[in-house]
Design brief:
Length: 230
């Protein structure tokens, strides 16, 4: 049995392991990009393989970040670093990080944003949340995605719409997400939505907390994800 001074700090071990795995995933994504550049006008099958590889690598990266953040927060109060940010810069970074995936999928992304919009938020957490939603829209959409950012009722609203089949009924009641209600054997743990709830609620002002909503329809007839923060 280990002595008290020899006990393993699992949080530190987990953090180091996640850091190493994220580095490996960065190298994997770079390799995917290099393969894409090395192939002149890839055929549809090759593009499909590259898109699938990009999607899985992106999902792994997001999952690792979520796992570490949830462990550190003990599923309670997620630590946030609120600072003023230009929203246009945040959106530009989000789009740039998924440019290759868009090309692989041969999909168009329409972005509607204000160039001078400023807001106080945790840009790292918001980017993780939006990136997870965007890559899922890329995964399930057919031809087009619309990303809109605007002010409404003194809240900052991010909306992502796609032309895919929409959210299944089990996901539409996002306000009642229960981690125990998802069947891990079917690959639906609900971790992404649970994490999105934590990020949204961690952004609060004057007793008002952020929230997310999931609907179907919208401008493209598919899934509609909304993040609203005060």
């Amino acid at each position: 049995m280990l002595k008290d001074d020899e006990m393993i700090d699992f949080s530190t071990v987990l953090g180091s392991a996640v850091h190493d795995m994220k580095n490996s995933l960065c190298l994997l994504n770079k390799s995917i990009e290099d393969i894409n550049h090395a192939i002149n006008q890839p055929d549809s099958k090759t593009s499909e393989f590259l898109a699938s590889a990009h999607y899985e690598a992106a999902r792994l990266n997001t999952g690792l970040v979520q796992l570490l953040s949830l462990y550190r927060a003990r599923l309670n109060n997620l630590p946030v670093n609120i600072e003023e940010h230009y929203i246009a810069d945040l959106i530009d970074d989000l789009v740039a990080s998924n440019k290759n995936y868009l090309n692989h999928k041969n999909m168009s992304l329409e972005v509607n944003k204000s160039a001078d919009l400023l807001w106080y938020l945790d840009s790292d957490l918001i980017c993780i949340l939006l990136n997870d939603v965007l890559i899922n829209a890329l995964r399930y959409g057919e031809n087009k995605i619309i990303l809109s950012v605007y002010e409404e009722n003194q809240n900052l609203v991010f909306k992502i719409e796609d032309d895919g089949p929409g959210y299944p009924k089990s996901m539409l009641n996002a306000d009642l997400i229960d981690m125990q209600a998802f069947d891990i054997r079917q690959g639906r743990t609900g971790l992404g939505l649970f994490f999105a709830h934590l990020i949204a609620k961690a952004h609060s002002k004057s007793n008002q907390a952020g929230f997310i909503s999931l609907t179907n329809g919208g401008a493209l007839g598919g899934s509609v994800f909304v993040l609203s923060i005060p």
